[in-house]
Amino acid sequence: MVKLTKIYTRGGDGGETSLGDGARVKKHDLRVAAYGAIDEANAAIGVARQHTMNVSDLDAILARLQNELFDLGADICVPSDNGDQNRPRLRVSAHQVAALEGDIDRLNADLPPLTSFILPGGSAAAAALHVARTTTRRAERELTALAERETVNLDAIAYINRLSDLLFVMARAANRLVNSRDVLWVPGQSRG
To answer: Most CB contacts within 10 A, which of 85, 94, 97, 109?
Structure first.
């Protein structure tokens, strides 16, 4: 269990921070950027939850996702080749990726097939879910950039990729559940 009694430590005042294994790195280190972007995605999901409280089971899924994003952040903040080998590390698993795929399949089954790209919008819930989706895509870019230089749990990369797919399907489901329509892209509409 985590117990925080003091919020500020002054340890980062020099532009460095500690990873989960105690190593000190620059605050702009690729690993810190990756788990920072994951934290941003989690915050965006928190905002989306303000619009999904009464929308079917979407809020329950988002609550689970927020907890899993903390798991993902814990996975990424500890390099896989560092730390005490006798102490088990929290790692995102293939089971969590499969659960996301199950959610995608279940929610997508009730949606009409896509005939166009979708613009972020429709209902307030869908718009917020699209913000969470695009923030998650940025986290994925940060994570894959890290993976080019350092070892990263492959299930973590699969997880963040499926998460953005799930948020896309959830945005469409939110629109359908509140009788709002997806906003379709009309290519060249304003070209005249």
So the answer is: 97
160: nearest Cα among 96, 108, 109 = 96
> In the chain, which ranges are continuous DSSP H helix?
30-49, 58-77, 94-108, 124-149, 154-177
The β-bridge partners of 183 are 119
37-76, pLDDT tens digit by residue?
999 999 999 999 999 987 779 999 999 999 999 999 999 9
Measure the CA–CA gap between 82 and 99, rounded to whole angstroms: 29
| Cβ-based neighbour number of residue 181 at 10 Å | 12
Q: Which residue has the tokens 């429709």?
A: 122
Q: Which pTM value belongs to this model?
A: 0.89
CATH of 16-77+90-180, one of 1.20.1200.10, 1.10.357.10, 3.40.190.10, 1.10.1200.10: 1.20.1200.10
- CA distance to 18, 52, 74, 149, 191, per residue, from 127 (Å): 35, 11, 28, 34, 25
pLDDT in tens, 99-108: 999 999 999 9
Q: CA of 179: how far to CAs of 21, 60, 126, in Å?
A: 48, 20, 12
| Paired tokens of 54 | 């009464």
